[in-house]
Design brief:
- The structure is a single chain.
- It is built from seven helices and six strands, in the order βαβαβββααααβα.
- By secondary structure, the chain is α/β, with parallel strands linked by helices.
- The chain starts with a strand and ends with a helix.
- The model has no long low-confidence stretch (mean pLDDT 97).
- The chain has one domain (2-107, 155-184): Maf protein (Alpha-Beta Complex).
- A six-stranded mixed β-sheet has the order 2-1-3-4-5-6.
- Helix 1 links the parallel strand 1 and strand 2.
Length: 189
Amino acid sequence: MRVAVGSRNPVKLAAVERALSRVFGDVEVVAVPVKTSVGEQPIGLRSVIRGAVERASQAVRCREVELGVGVEAGLIKAPATITGYLDVQACAIVDSEGLVSIGMGPGFEFPPEAVNAVLSGESRELEEPMVRLSGIEGIGDKMGAIGWLTKGLISRVDITEVAVIMALVPRLNRDLYRLRRVEDVLAEL
């Protein structure tokens, strides 16, 4: 199976390959650079999902592939949390017929300093303050902030893989779901 991922991020590519190979066996993953309307650091559930859907729909059109996969991480409001936000990853999978399935990964809190830097506009994305806090250049392309924050217990590849598997649920159970068209999903977002 040949799959296009709407990103050049090596963590996203590895997670997609790991997740899809568990289901489909041999998977060839190609990176497709894309642009989204949600900016470098999406804030809000709609923006996070929209970014994932835009990435997947652009990726599936750019190559001769069976699936386009988009992964987008961002902050969503979360009551009773320290910062008021959780970081989550959304995954959208779009097939060559333009049908979409969506899943989410686990959520966690970034340190208040990082969240405040993004919300205040001091930083364009969470990676900037996390590089300062962790001392790890390019942390988002490596273990991710979650890898550093959990002391290596779980990595960004791990949480991204979960999001991809969650997006596969309707595809693994086609008799239970009716997938929606990408244009209808984007119109709702």
